[in-house]
Amino acid sequence: MPSDHQTQQIPTQKRNATLTLWQVVLFGLAYMTPIIVLGTFGVLATVTQGATAGAYLAALIAMLFTAYSYGQMAKAFPVAGSAYTYVRRAIDDRLGFLAGWAILLDYLFLPMVIWLIGAAYLYSAFPAIPQWLWLLGFIVLTTGINYVGLKLASRINSLLMLVQVLVLIAFISLSIHYVVGDPTQPLWDLRPFIGTSTTLLPTLMAGAAVACYSFLGFDAVTTLTEETRSPRQTLPRAILAITVVGGLIFIGVAYFVQLATPDFHFDNPDAAAYQIARNIGGDLFVSIFLIGLIVGQFASGIAAQASGARLIYAMGRDGVLSKRWLGTLSRFGTPTGGLVLSGLIALLALAMDVLSAASFINFGAFIAFTLVNLSVISHYFGREHRRQGLDVIRYLIAPAIGAGAIIWLLFSLDNRAIVLGAIWLAVGLAWLLWLTQGFRLPPPELEVEEA
After folding, report:
1. pLDDT in tens, 121-178
2. CATH numbers and ranges of domains, the chain
3. What HEC string does the chain produce?
């Protein structure tokens, strides 16, 4: 991938289309960071009262419809982009701006959640050191690496990704071994899917609304459009494959870990997997697990902050945000303003827990997902009049179900997250009114491709 400096100099440079289907799928899975299922396990187990696998299953079903819609929009507009691009081209520039504003919520706050999870686990292992100090360590170190540039961050990420995959495999294996060694615990049990709650559906949907955090990034492969062979055919298949494979990994891990931990009451739900790792593997494994999880969070934080800072830079450069503070690059070709802003926002984690922070991020994702589903209806069913036979299912019923499922998940979020998310959207709408002088001017066009 070209550096920011190269992209800025040659914005129309033609990229080599060399990526195959499975290369794109592997990229998407790596971006999703599968080990996150362990990082949020305690929160999910508490919310669902022991039905973590059921929550991931419900989330997977809902996400499949949205993944289908992303695939259809990638087929219609085979350019590097995101929900912002699809909504702007399929529905309206102003709705596209709001979709971009919702995406900005994810990009700005995702590093905060990643670092918060890592800090919670380190605090569980070393309670003598305050959690806020671990959080500051993540922010400073990650920001420093990203300031030096993408090349260093990429090299570090490749190594860290391998470590976390190996730790995830070890955790699953030990969970299975632990369950098999208990004669009172069958290997097949419905409890990880239904839990102990007397109100199963609301509980599952509340859990699924949080579980969707693990799926964030499944759509990141749309940025690889220009590097992918036959993108109109490859990207829709890749997006669905990433969602299915990632969902099955999450369900499988959640199922066996829940079997190994039928009691979902933890001393610290934000760092429950640390307690579970000690139970199933002893002191040695809990140390290995902690290293793997922190490595995974560190790698994910590097990527999330780098992506967010570059989106902020693009918005500053295009006049959506302050060009003076956010639209310039450092001598390393990195967006200093975006990196600093990301670090400052992460300080909000000092007053939040993982559940509220992850729910807040999901609010922005759910808004974008809903608009992408509606974009399929607007573009294919509306503009192109694809209304015959199976097209009614493809371009009306399926995306409508997807939009409905995402809206249901949105209103199943933590109440504080809904309020904060609504405030964020209101600020975005007010900013849009200012930029367009009351909708008299078109909104500024954001070149997401260059971010």
Report:
1. 999 889 999 999 999 999 999 888 888 765 555 555 556 667 777 888 888 899 998 8
2. 16-450 (1.20.1740.10)
3. CCCHHHHHHCCCCCCCCCECHHHHHHHHHHHHCCCHHHHCHHHHHHHHCCCHHHHHHHHHHHHHHHHHHHHHHHHHCCCCCCHHHHHHHHCCHHHHHHHHHHHHHHHHHHHHHHHHHHHHHHHHHCCCCCHHHHHHHHHHHHHHHHHHCHHHHHHHHHHHHHHHHHHHHHHHHHHHHHHHCCCCCCCCCCHHHHCCCCCHHHHHHHHHHHHHHHHCCHHHHHHHHHHECCHHHHHHHHHHHHHHHHHHHHHHHHHHHHHHCCCCCCCCHHHHHHHHHHHHHHHHHHHHHHHHHHHHHHHHHHHHHHHHHHHHHHHHHCCCCCHHHHCCCCCCCCCHHHHHHHHHHHHHHHHCCHHHHHHHHHHHHHHHHHHHHHHHHHHHHHHCCCCCCCHHHHHHHHHHHHHHHHHHHHCCCCHHHHHHHHHHHHHHHHHHHHHCCCCCCCCCCCCHHHC
